[in-house]
Amino acid sequence: MKTSEEALHDLLIERSELWNKIDRGNGAVGVLPNPQGHLLEMQLNHMRNYLHVLDLRIEELNRHLSNDMSDVRA
């Protein structure tokens, strides 16, 4: 079982990799002819949605870790 810190680290790495893929894909959308450009845009939209999910998970885990740290100091 991973610790919260390890899970957060993994999520941050996954988010960074996904962001890089989205960034590269954004540049390719305008260059590709249809239907490839349209299909890539749809895939990028799914990736952006998942990026949002990762952001929410990271935010929740950060909050959990902050609460744990507050309990340790108290």
Topology of this protein?
Layout: H1 4-29, H2 36-73
Helix pairs in contact: 1-2
Q: Which stretches are low in confidence, meaning pLDDT under 50 for 5 or more residues running?
A: none
Rounded to the nearest angstrom, the radius of gyration is 17 Å
What helical percentage do the residues reach?
A: over 70%
Overall pLDDT confidence? 91
Our measurement of the CA-to-CA distance between the termini, rounded to an integer number of angstroms, reads: 26 Å
Describe the sheet with the most strands. none
The total count of helices amounts to 2
Order of helices and strands: HH
Proportion of beta-strand residues? under 5%
Envelope shape: rod-shaped
Structural class: mainly alpha
In terms of quaternary structure, the protein is: single chain
Number of strands: 0
